[in-house]
UniProtKB/TrEMBL annotation:
Gene3D superfamilies: Ribosomal protein L17. One of its GO terms (biological process) is translation. This is Large ribosomal subunit protein bL17c. It holds the Pfam family Ribosomal_L17. The keyword Iron does not apply. Belongs to the bacterial ribosomal protein bL17 family. GO terms for cellular component: cytosolic large ribosomal subunit.
Length: 116
């Protein structure tokens, strides 16, 4: 049973939602910290953790899966090169969400999502 396992919809159809989460994940892995809404940050956390877990395995199959999700090829290669040093001992929890002030225009709750 999947009671309580709701998918965060983010007010978008499924294809746009997937593209948004792919783009946010790519930018977070590229820059290390991004500012977005709290709902987007908490929805994105799952995908970032999955990409880092794929990189920790390091096999060719996992690399191809990551290349299929992340938009920039260079980021995938850099991720697979550095992840063992950075997250080798850590078993999950690769991101931190830091709440910040609401957005000025529409008062949306904002947050920074940071790679730990």
């Amino acid at each position: 049973m999947r009671h309580g396992r709701r998918v965060p919809k983010l007010n978008r159809p499924p294809d746009q939602r997937r593209a948004l989460l792919r783009g946010l994940t790519t930018q977070l892995l590229k820059h290390g910290r991004i500012k977005t809404t709290r709902a987007r940050a908490s929805a994105m956390r799952k995908y970032v953790d999955k990409m880092i877990t794929l990189a920790k395995d390091g096999s060719l199959h996992k690399r191809r899966q990551a290349l299929g999700f992340i938009y920039e090829k260079g980021i995938v290669h850099a991720l697979f090169a550095e992840v063992q040093d950075r997250y080798g001992e850590r078993n999950g929890g690769y991101t931190r969400i830091i709440r910040t002030l609401p957005r000025r225009g529409d008062n949306a709750p904002m947050a920074y999502i940071v790679l730990v």
